[in-house]
Amino acid sequence: MRESKGNAVAVEPKPGAPAVDERPAAPDDDGVFDPDIDDTLPPFRPSPEPTGAWHKRWALGIGGWAIVVAVVYLTLGVHLNPYLSLTGLLVGFLVGLTGMGGGALMTPILIFFFGFQPTMAIGTDVTYAAVTKIFGSWKHWRQGSVDIPLALWLALGSVPAALVGVAAVAYVKNTYGDVINTILYRAIGSALMMVGVLLIVKVVMHVDQRHRRENIKMTTRLKVMTVCLGLGTGFIIGLTSVGSGTFLAVFLILFYPLTTDRIVGTDVFHAMILLCITGLAQIGVGNVDLWMVASLLMGSIPGVLIGSQLTVRAPNRVLRSILAVVLFVSGLALLFKS
Question: Is residue 7 part of a domain?
């Protein structure tokens, strides 16, 4: 006797009919069914919204934010930079769209186009990115695209390592003065070139297209590996501000077989935790221009929200290829600048 899925009516099998195999089909190509990994949806995955529902909400939200920006510029515009706001809009949109970290794009922009010193560019960028990630992670949480345990295990390693990186920069700056600029030019340039190469590898290998898992089981071995990954990337982020979205996302794709939206959402959520704490540390050592942070946020907040909404519709392979070339060239330029 079998219960139909739609109306719960019992149906008797016909005499002589072959037995029906009621076991769930294995979702993996290897034919191995693991209920701890494959047969679960995250408990906070929401049901699809009615068609067109988000259009009205987003139109209202963007319109309200435009009014807020206009009022702020009319009252405090003398302290703000509208060109930074436009830059924040573009970078925030790309962050939400591709899952890349803002540091890989914003730090070289602040250095090359706005004349920031490396230490001030890193601190300002980290603080601005922290606030941006709060809005982006909220959106990904609402979409159900965050693996909370994975993000927390990453943060266990990345947060203390990033604080060590910030302390190292402050120590060298206070002890040796301008020598820190040369060190940071080389460090940021090397990190950008590495990110560019990793992005190309990601696009060419099509790794994320084979990932279909909603959850992964955090075994002891995987937890240790995750903390170690957080340690390595956290120190680089604390030192250069580069890697919170791009550098780490590539490793997540290579070693964690989650769906693309879960990779992006988990990466953004982890970056929010990491950058909020690192940003406070940068403010504490005096490497942040809060007015410039406010200018960036005027544009980046709506940018990252719009980009996050369009993640699944974007030609990500094309965008990542272009951004990879831009990042590699920017890193090379910073190495020559040093």
Answer: no
In the block, tokens 């693991």 appear at 34
2 strand-pairing partners:
11
In a domain, 85, yes or no: yes
- Please answer whether residues 152 and 230 qualify as being in contact, where contact means their C-beta atoms are separated by less than 8 angstroms: no
Whether residue 305 lies inside any domain: the answer is yes
Q: Quick one: the chain helix, strand, coil %, rounded to 5?
A: 70, 0, 25
Query: How far is the C-alpha of 170 from the C-alpha of 133, rounded, in Å?
Result: 25
Kindly report the CA angle at 162 between 161 and 168, in degrees rounded to 5? 90
Q: What is the pLDDT of residues 170-215, one digit of tens each?
A: 999 888 878 888 899 999 889 888 888 877 776 776 555 555 566 6
**What does 270-327 look like in DSSP terms, one character per residue?**
HHHHHHHHHHHHHHHTT---HHHHHHHHHHHHHHHHHHHHTGGGS-HHHHHHHHHHHH
